[in-house]
């Protein structure tokens, strides 16, 4: 709902740091951005360094974390690489691709990770300064915890950044995990004196129950730390927003537990380097769909549709697919009339061959694909980053999404494309492939289920009636996302001392 407050001019920055990963930093920044926007304050999000395999494409063809894309939406802003100048995308447990100002520039292994400050910090500070000049307020999100003492020397994501730009900090912790007072006080106690002074207050997240039962603890915390508790935020049920990195397990369980009608069963094998699995979150909201993520040793049988997802390491994940026997299960699924869809890396896996002559992903130079589409892919160092819209070939349904991939696909199968697209530069082209028997489709477009028309077409294709649409109408994911942003802003505004928080911003 619209805010009725009339605020005094506010100008400056505020950083939200957490006692742990997943303490609630991203959601807090999203909510604060929308609250400030509703009050007529010019505001932008910022995360100095993010590590995630879920990303979004900016209008100028850069790449940022999906959390910052959501926060930008909360601010009513188009996506900018300045919102997340450093993005790390793990290739393996020991190596990460380094993306600076939206473009991949390097790779670091675990032994060289300390070089990130030398490599990237000047870019972080420059991006932050540009935002400070454009907007009245910049709300900054930390990464992980500032108390990770092994990372302090080269920190650019938490107190290392806050100290460099003289930014005040609020510290958030998740009470649902237990030990919230130890998390908050322990984190503060580990920090240097100047960093302790920089923390201006606490937020407690995911509280369930009566606030009176917590009051003694809140009083103790304020007396012990000499810092205020700025708010106690309730546990928000049924939250339907993009996951920053990990699969949204709560929504997954909720989706699986629905049993009130006959539904289309969709199974997605979880690959070690699965990327942009936010593709599937609209399906978790669809009352006509059962979506199951299948992990190692799992069973793909019983599915109407199997989706091969995106991957940061396509050849390694393809090898994993075979190790788990998922390839044999997919072939059996097709023999019984099932459907298969590949998205991005999953599309590449469905082809005849994947070659990597430049060793973009590692030492494997060539892999045999699953052979279900007549295409072959050559991986390239240059990444394709595009926002696209268009129509599905032969059906005319609208499609809208984005591309993030290293690779060029060729072959006769492309003569039966999935869709016709136009990118943000005005270039038009066809994308993807559909097998001759119509059972297998592949596309490079992420976000295909976000748009109701595309979602309904795919579900109709699975159910055998693509022209008449899916058994249940798909909801507009963008409209749902907007409603959820408004909902969390209302909740945060109700439970945070906003006057005190606005006084902290400088």
Automatic annotation (TrEMBL):
Assigned keywords, A-Z: Cobalamin biosynthesis, Glutamine amidotransferase
Pathway given in the UniProt record: Cofactor biosynthesis; adenosylcobalamin biosynthesis
Keyword Ubl conjugation: no
InterPro entries assigned: Class_I_gatase-like, CobQ/CobB/MinD/ParA_Nub-bd_dom, CobQ_GATase1, CobQ_N, CobQ_synth, GATase_3, P-loop_NTPase
Domain (CobQ/CobB/MinD/ParA nucleotide binding) ranges: 14-240
Pfam family, one: CbiA
Cited Gene3D superfamilies: 3.40.50.880, P-loop containing nucleotide triphosphate hydrolases
Active site: 344 (nucleophile), 446
Any one GO molecular-function label of the UniProt entry: catalytic activity
One GO-annotated biological process of the protein: cobalamin biosynthetic process
CobB/CobQ-like glutamine amidotransferase domain boundaries: 266-452
Similarity comment text for this entry: Belongs to the CobB/CobQ family. CobQ subfamily.
Described purpose of this protein according to its UniProt entry: Catalyzes amidations at positions B, D, E, and G on adenosylcobyrinic A,C-diamide. NH(2) groups are provided by glutamine, and one molecule of ATP is hydrogenolyzed for each amidation.
Protein name: Cobyric acid synthase
Gene name per UniProt: cobQ
């Amino acid at each position: 709902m619209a805010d009725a407050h009339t605020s005094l001019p506010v100008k400056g920055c505020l950083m939200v740091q957490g006692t742990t990963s997943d303490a609630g930093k991203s959601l807090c920044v999203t909510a604060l951005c929308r609250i400030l926007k509703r009050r007529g304050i010019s505001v932008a999000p910022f995360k100095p360094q993010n590590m995630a395999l879920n990303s979004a494409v900016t209008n100028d063809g850069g790449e940022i974390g999906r959390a910052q894309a959501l926060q930008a939406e909360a601010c009513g802003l188009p996506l900018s690489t300045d919102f997340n100048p450093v993005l790390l995308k793990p290739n393996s447990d020991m190596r990460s691709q380094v993306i600076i100002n939206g473009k991949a520039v390097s790779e670091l292994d675990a032994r060289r990770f300390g070089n990130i400050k030398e490599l990237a910090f000047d870019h972080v500070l420059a991006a932050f300064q540009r935002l400070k000049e454009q907007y009245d307020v910049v709300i900054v999100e930390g990464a992980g915890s500032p108390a990770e003492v092994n990372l302090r020397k080269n920190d650019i994501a938490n107190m290392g950044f806050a100290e460099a730009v003289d930014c005040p900090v609020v510290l958030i912790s998740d009470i649902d995990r237990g030990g919230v007072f130890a998390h908050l006080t322990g984190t503060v106690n580990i920090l240097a004196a100047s960093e302790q002074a920089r923390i201006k207050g606490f937020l407690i997240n995911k509280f369930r129950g009566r606030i009176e039962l917590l009051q003694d603890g809140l009083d103790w915390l304020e007396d012990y730390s000499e810092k205020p508790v700025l708010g106690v935020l309730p546990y928000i049920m049924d939250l339907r927003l993009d996951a920053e990195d990990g699969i949204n397990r709560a929504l997954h369980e909720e989706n699986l537990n629905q049993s009130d009608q006959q539904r289309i069963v969709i199974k997605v094998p979880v690959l070690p380097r699965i990327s942009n699995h936010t593709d599937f979150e609209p399906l978790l909201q669809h009352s006509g769909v059962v979506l199951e993520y299948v992990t190692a040793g799992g069973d793909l049988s019983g599915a109407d549709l199997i989706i091969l997802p995106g991957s940061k390491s396509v050849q390694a994940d393809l090898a994993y697919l075979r190790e788990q026997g998922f390839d044999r299960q997919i072939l059996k699924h097709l023999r019984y009339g099932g459907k298969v869809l590949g998205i991005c890396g999953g599309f590449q896996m469905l082809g005849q061959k994947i070659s990597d002559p430049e060793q973009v992903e590692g030492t494997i130079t060539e892999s045999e694909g699953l052979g279900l589409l007549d295409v072959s892919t050559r991986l390239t160092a240059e990444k394709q980053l595009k926002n696209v819209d268009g129509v599905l070939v032969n059906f005319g349904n609208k499609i809208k999404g984005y591309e993030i991939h290293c690779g060029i696909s060729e072959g006769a199968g492309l003569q039966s494309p999935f869709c016709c697209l136009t990118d943000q530069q005005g270039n038009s082209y066809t994308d993807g492939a559909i097998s001759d028997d119509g059972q297998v489709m592949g596309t490079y477009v992420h976000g295909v289920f976000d748009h109701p028309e595309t979602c309904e077409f795919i579900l109709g294709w699975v159910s055998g009636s693509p022209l008449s649409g899916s058994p249940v109408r798909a909801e507009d994911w963008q409209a749902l996302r907007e409603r959820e942003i408004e909902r969390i802003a209302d909740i945060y505004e109700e439970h945070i001392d906003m006057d005190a928080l606005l006084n902290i911003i400088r």
